[in-house]
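Dear Dr. H.,

I hope your travels went smoothly. While you were away I took the liberty of generating a structure for the chain from your last submission, since the lab meeting agenda had it listed for discussion. I wanted you to have the full record in hand beforehand rather than looking at slides cold. The sequence, exactly as received, is reproduced here:
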Amino acid sequence: MIDENREVCLCFHVPLGKLLKFYRIRRLNVPSDFARCHGAGTGCGWCVPHLERLFEQLQRGEAPEPEMTFEEYRARRAIYHREKKPMLPPSADADGALDIDLDEIIDRVPDDMKLD
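The corresponding predicted structure, in token form, is as follows:
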């Protein structure tokens, strides 16, 4: 059974079910039309090939079939970010919680720029 809650676009948290409904209602012509569904595929770009595959499956009348588990999908996206998109800040959901020391960050801000 297909998990329609499974996110396909992790940047904008767009689940498979929303993409399927969008496809049915809007009768998409090309895979890039998924971008009109909450911006799917317009963030880091990781999900674009997966959106293209989904589009092709739907065009053929097939049920969507993920290539990998969601855990593997997230892990591969994290690798993609590190290798292909190092200029992007790491997404909070890619590798777990961010380790941020707010006191250290605040100490770097000049006193005349701090708000009371």
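Two observations you may find useful: Strands lie at 7-9, 14-15. The mean pLDDT is 86.

With kind regards,
E. W.
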